[in-house]
Design goal:
Elements (H helix, E strand, L loop, with lengths): L1 E5 L2 E4 L4 E8 L7 E7 L6 E7 L5 E3 L7 E6 L4 E6 L8 E11 L2 E6 L3 E6 L1
Parallel strand pairs: 2-11
Antiparallel strand pairs: 1-3, 3-8, 4-5, 4-9, 5-6, 7-8, 9-10, 9-11
Length: 119
């Protein structure tokens, strides 16, 4: 499984960025794919995810109404559109794929992309 993030960068507060996660190397029937982030000195936290089976989505309360997750199956890519960015959104953002197989969950991670929001 390969997950390759892109789209991070430096943006002023109130600005927008779109993160991309290009996926390859798997044929799971059902999985969750989405984004986590980790700010300096803090634990990694879930931001948003999408269920490939039914298209349902999850958003952390801190990003609801500002971030939108979407997927392009033809391009095997998942996006995170981020609007109204705040300094507290500054973190390394990681793409994550989670699948259930046998009797346990398996997690796969990208290398991360830095998002920095200046005030």
């Amino acid at each position: 499984v390969q997950l390759v993030e892109s789209g991070g960068g430096l943006v002023q507060a109130g600005g927008s960025l779109r993160l991309s996660c290009a996926t390859s190397g798997f044929t799971f029937d059902r999985y969750l794919i989405g984004w986590f982030r980790q700010a300096p000195g803090k634990e990694r936290e879930g931001v948003s995810s999408i269920n490939n089976d039914d298209g349902s989505t999850y958003y952390a309360d801190s990003v609801k109404g500002r971030f939108t997750i979407s997927s392009d199956n033809a391009k095997n890519t998942v996006y995170l559109q981020m609007h109204s960015l705040k300094p507290e959104d500054t973190a390394v953002y990681y793409c994550n794929l989670k699948t259930w197989y046998g009797s346990r969950w398996y997690d796969y991670w990208g290398q991360g992309t830095q998002v920095t929001v200046s005030s």
